Amino acid sequence: METTTEAGAEANTEAARFDELIAADDRIEPRDWMPDDYRRTLIRQMSQHAHSEIIGMQPEANWISRAPSLKRKAILMAKVQDEAGHGLYLYSATETLGVTRDELTEQLLAGKAKYSSIFNYPTLSWADIGAIGWLVDGAAICNQVPLCRCSYAPYGRAMVRICKEESFHQRQGFEILLTLMRGTPEQQRMAQDAVDRWYWPSLMMFGPPDADSPNSARSMGWKIKRFSNDELRQRFVAMLVPQAEALGVTLPDPDLRWNEQRQAYDLGPIDWSELQEVIAGRGPCNAQRLQRRREAHEDGAWVREAAAAYAAKQAASRAAATAEAVA
Ligand code: FAQ
């Protein structure tokens, strides 16, 4: 009985300590006590984020072999490799919460895990690579810079490095579009068409409107998320408007205007049913993206087997060396 009371008192102290750390804007480390729901929320968000980086390699990889010059090809290859790196940091950070990368991969391949809706759209022209860099990486930066201050330290630390690379990615996308906009009328049309197709899906990346976002309030209370979905969407549009002007492209929203009274942009209606459809697995490329990921996982089996065999060999020779030293 006494033991139960002692255990209860200890749990209360740990919970109070957790609340104090959050209130003081301090960081939670993997060894610290944390509520089960906090852990679950982080695993959910961080693994979805990791999967997004990995699936997000596909739409751009589609253009590596068709990039218009050697320089463009080298840049695009480097960018796609960066996304793989981001996925790896994020899987590693998620593993600190007590889940394995194998389990997370299994959930993705089984179609049980979510990843960002944006990567279920096709890349139809070279200008799409510019639009992805400008809009998709731009949205990623708006969403992810505040995540550098996430209360869970390994996630925040991973985001610092990721954001540095994302800002380079955004500039390369802007530069592709700028080059096209300074080109022939056909190239200008291609750039505008890409912006028309990627603009609305990029606004959806921030998630449903605040009133329909079941996770936001709690995640903000825990300082995992620092801003709501709608707040970040507003920041994104405010960043895009002057950049679109500099590029000479039109954002495809006739209702978009600055509202002096609200000190915010009024946006035209967003088709939330489209986001729901894509999240439910019925977007233009969902099936293709998962199929490709499954094939890539199978094709890579020999690499995983070779790495495991090498690690076992190394461990055996270390054990033999230790045994010899002891003898
Ligand atoms: N797509 O209650 P909320 C990148 C789900 S990486 C799919 O508002 P929350 C880099 C949500 O999971 C892009 N699902 O949820 C790159 C939840 O479902 P659940 C990825 C979505 O977590 C560039 C439900 O709807 N970035 O771009 C989406 O508070 C170029 C209700 O939503 C991140 O993951 C969506 N768009 O807020 C790579 C950033 N929106 O889990 C390659 C970190 C919502 O309850 C090339 N994540 N859902 O079953 C976040 O900030 C948040 O998780 C949000 C969603 C904002 C995405």
UniProtKB/TrEMBL annotation:
Keywords: Oxidoreductase
GO molecular function: phenylacetyl-CoA 1,2-epoxidase activity
Record-linked Gene3D superfamilies: 1.20.1260.10
EC number: 1.14.13.149
SUPFAM superfamilies in UniProt: Ferritin-like
Record-linked Pfam families: PaaA_PaaC (PF05138)
UniProt keyword annotation of Oxidoreductase present: yes
UniProt name for this protein: 1,2-phenylacetyl-CoA epoxidase subunit A
Gene behind this protein: paaA
